[in-house]
Design goal:
The protein is an alpha/beta fold. It is built from 5 helices and 7 strands; from the N terminus they run ββαββαβαβαβα. A 7-stranded mixed beta sheet has the order 1-3-4-2-5-6-7, sandwiched between helices. The structure holds guanosine-5'-diphosphate. The site of guanosine-5'-diphosphate (GDP) has 19 residues, from α1. Its cofactor is Mg(2+).
């Protein structure tokens, strides 16, 4: 998709704040600092529309972006931020679970992991959660440019093994620096659009 128009529509915490449209939604999830904002900005050709999420003190909201009047990206607050309290973490979990298990417009989740590292426990839990609820998932492994070409395969294998990756899902190596994986990511997303 060639994106010319993208704007933030609403930051929601509860279902009554979700936008009342039938547009398909693609949610984006990942631990803080994985490169989620950079991924969103790359896909929509913007420098700084999506802001780094999950910093302490920042409100934990679902941010809905309208893309080309065709779909919504739903930016899920980053998980795994060490300084977040137990209560906040529980609220986060409830908000995500409610959204992902009840929202009919949700077509797929882009789950971001860092290509450099083995998936965290939370990365694995997110993947298991999505598989359990049969929510289509696209795995995007970020920061590809930080790993030498000769090691891409090895890192991909480590991630797939830890996730118990289902071969029918998409797995995309991505870099917001070089933009590698951008077209592939759009193609994977477009499979879920009408
Ligand atoms: P978020 O917290 O998941 O939204 O992560 P950000 O998109 O804010 O990225 C966190 C940090 O990683 C920032 O310093 C980015 O510049 C950096 N970063 C994100 N994606 C890439 C990438 O593909 N390559 C490199 N080298 N750095 C990246």
């Amino acid at each position: 998709m060639k994106v010319h128009n993208a704007e933030i529509i609403i930051s929601a915490v509860s279902p009554k704040q979700y936008p009342e449209t039938e547009l398909p939604e693609i949610a984006l999830a990942g631990r803080s600092n994985v490169g989620k904002s950079s991924f969103i900005n790359t896909l929509i050709n913007r420098k700084n529309l999506a802001r780094t999420s999950g910093k302490p003190g920042k409100t934990q909201t679902l941010n809905f972006y309208l893309i080309e009047d065709a779909l919504h990206f739903v930016d899920v607050p980053g998980y795994g931020y060490a300084k977040v309290s137990k209560t906040e973490r529980a609220k986060w979990g409830e908000m995500i679970e409610t959204y992902m298990t009840t929202r009919e417009q949700l077509k797929a989740v882009v789950s971001l992991v860092d290509l450099r590292h083995a998936p965290t426990q939370e990365d694995i839990q997110m993947y298991e959660f999505l598989k359990y609820y049969e929510i289509p998932v696209i795995i995007v492994a970020t920061k590809k440019d930080k790993i030498p070409r000769g090691k891409w395969n090895k890192h991909e294998s480590i991630i797939k093994k830890a996730l118990n990756f289902d071969k029918s899902d998409d797995f995309i190596l991505f870099s917001s620096q070089t933009k590698e994986g951008k077209e592939e990511a759009w193609q994977a997303i477009e499979k879920y659009l009408p």
